[in-house]
Every structure is written in C-alpha cells, then in structure tokens.
Amino acid sequence: MDARTSILPLELSGVSFTAGGQRLIKDISATFEAGPRTIIVGPNGAGKSLFLRLCHGLIKPDAGQVLWNGGGDATPHQAMVFQRPVMLRRSAAANVDYALHLKGLPRNERRELVAEALARTGLSRFARSPARVLSFGEQQRLALARTWALNPQVLFLDEPTASLDPAATHSVEEIISAFHDAGTKIVMTTHDLGQARRLGDEVLFIYRGRILERAPVDRFFTAPENDLAQAFIKGELLWWRRGEGAEENEDREEGE
Is the peptide bond between 130 and the residue preceding it cis, with omega within 30 degrees of 0? Predict the structure, then answer.
C-alpha cells in the first residue's frame, strides 16, 4: 500500500475467536474511521485485549474478516503498544533506531528521527542509558518513542498506563494526545474510566466478547443505553449479569 494512501477505514465483519474450547470474541462487526479517539472499556476478561490483537493482526479470527481499506496491507502503517513493553538489550536511542532499521530507513535518516522521537517523549537525557534500567514509566514512554519514529496512521494501545503512578500516567497521556494531534488514529483499552473521559471521543463497551454499546464519550457516561454499561459505569460487579437480550443458551453451551 502506498504510504500516501490511508489504511482506514478498518472494518471487522462477523469476527469471532476461540481459545481453549471457548468462544472469547463473538460475531463482532465494527468500522473504525480516521479522526475520533476510540476508547475500549469493559470488565476484566471481557475480550478487550483480544479485540485489539485481532485488529492489529497479531492473531487471526476463526470466523469473519478484518479488512483495512478494502483489503490492502496495513502492516507498515499501524502499530501497537502493550501494557508491558519489551525493551531490547541496548540503549534507549538504539531501541528506537532498531525499529527504524527494521523499516529499512538508511542510517543518516534514522539519526534525526531517533533524536526527535526521544525529545517528543521527554527521554533525550536517557538516549545513552540502557533501556532495561529505566523506570517502568520511562520504558513505556520509550515504547511510544519507538512508535512515534515510525509515524503510524493507526496506534493501538493496550492499557498503557495500568501500572503507572499519576505523574507517569500524565506523561503518557500527553504523548498519546500528541499522536492524536499529529493525525494518528488512536484505539485504546483502559480500565480507568477517568482516563476514558479525558482521552476519548467515543467509547466502545465490550462484555463477554461482544460490543454491547458504542457512543460518544459524553453520552456513554451520562446516558448509556445498555443495562450492563450502566452497571459498569456505576462500579457494580458484572460477573453474574447477563444483560438485556443476552443469549443464555449460548452462554450455557460455552460454559460461561
């Protein structure tokens, strides 16, 4: 796919995924367009991380299709940052440089991009430091620096601040906002409803492998339509709840 061609929209059609004999993602259909930041919420085990991995292409669905802009190869133009990023046994600058090397950029171009990415994420002073001795928050910013250097059209983030203190969370949120301001489409999971309010334009609520609600952020938090979404926002435990229209026979068959 030409770098000047948008890889969006991303379309999921009837996507399901099974592991260990259980259907964990169930007939999901959704379309993601450029622009709004999409925040995915739901209880633990709802399928949020699996959903991101299906979108990113790390795993393949058992049924249905995941298509970028009608079927083009989007791999070079989208990226994913995980809750616990993997750091290479080299300096912070070399971690960013290696990502650019894999992309095939010549050394003279990489040097400037590395410096810019470290500056954007507040890590310039750690350029020569071993990446694995950085704090967890600094490592998460370094993962974002690697991604910034690649200039993706779409960035998937899987609970990127789950283990961070408030100061580190603020720093990471500022970087995510910078990606959005630069034109990158953000699709992110979080367990922090305050963060969803701060960073989201729309919220997608997943429960037991299904999308039960998708709404603009203000409407989701003030007037959600789905009863389980209402309970989730109130902080109620959902492990025993089926919700309106739940498929009890399917749940029984799948052992949920």
Answer: no
